[in-house]
Every structure is written in C-alpha cells, then in structure tokens.
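User: Let's play a game. I give you a shape written as tokens, and you guess the letters that built it. Ready? Here's round one.
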C-alpha cells in the first residue's frame, strides 16, 4: 500500500473514531445511554466503572505519547508506523476519556463533582487532538509553524494538568 493510501486510511479511521466519540458523548449528555454505576476495585482502589475507563484512556495517552518523539529521533525508519499507532491509539483513548467526562458532567446535583481540573484537562486534550489532526491532515498547512509549536505545548499542558487532577482527586491540593 502506498503512503498516500495509508494516510487516507488513517485519516478515515481517525474521523470515524472522532464521530463515534461525539455520538457516544451526545447520547450520554442526553441521558439516552448511561453506563451502570458499578464500583470496581483495582489494587485496593475503588472507583466507578466510568472512572476506571477514564484512567485507562488517560494512562494510555500519558505513556504512549512520549514514544513518538523518541522514535522520531532514535529510529526514524519506524516513525511513520509509530505515528499511525499514535493517532489511532490516542483517539481510542480520547473516546474512553470522553465517556468518563460525559458521565461526570451529567451526574445528578447531589453527587456533582468539582470539575475544575477535569475541565482544563479535557480542554487540553481536545486542543491536542485538534492540532494533531490539523497537522497530520495538512489542513493547517497555512499555520504549520504555529501548529508545530502548539501541539507539543498542549501535550505539556496535558501532563501538567493530569498531575494536578490526580493530586486534586486524592485531596492533596
């Protein structure tokens, strides 16, 4: 398969994941779909199923993302394949985090969470996705220099806010 064919397939897959995430999130916002409230114990930590889904997505992004610049520098021959995995894997992780976020913001008033760091984290993640798609698709060629700066800047923001989000969640701040 030619590189343009692979790029088109990756972009099509990316848009399908993005559209699926938007539909799932809309269904949750409209209260048409809800994951059951089930407490799940993992290594002594008990949280809801949707919380663990958010953790899975966030941990994937947090640990998989740094591999891309490492591969670009250390093994450039594998960069294109790694980039494809980066795009699809992170978008699936974003879908998982979106399920968690939608469930959080649609909780009842009696159990509504403090969304401060979560909203900032979700916004940083969405900006990361947007700049990544603009960069990969070529749509943002006119603003290439800005996007090349903003994409890693949003990644740094994501990492800083996830640390604050975790510290806030365990009541250290």
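Assistant: Ready! My guess for every position:
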């Amino acid at each position: 398969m030619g590189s343009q064919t692979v790029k088109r397939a990756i972009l099509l897959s990316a848009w399908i994941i993005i559209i699926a995430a938007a539909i799932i999130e809309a269904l949750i916002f409209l209260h048409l779909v809800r994951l059951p409230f089930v407490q799940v114990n993992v290594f002594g930590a008990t949280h809801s199923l949707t919380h663990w889904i958010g953790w899975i997505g966030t941990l994937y992004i947090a640990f998989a993302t740094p591999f891309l610049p490492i591969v670009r520098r250390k093994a450039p021959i594998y960069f294109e394949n790694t980039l494809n995995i980066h795009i699809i894997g992170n978008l699936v992780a974003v879908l998982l985090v979106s399920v968690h976020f939608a469930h959080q913001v649609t909780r009842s008033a009696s159990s509504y969470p403090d969304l401060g760091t979560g909203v900032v984290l979700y916004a940083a993640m969405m900006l990361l996705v947007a700049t990544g798609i603009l960069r990969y698709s070529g749509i943002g060629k006119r603003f290439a220099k800005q996007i090349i700066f903003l994409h890693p800047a949003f990644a740094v923001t994501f990492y800083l806010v996830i640390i604050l989000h975790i510290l806030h969640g365990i009541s250290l701040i």
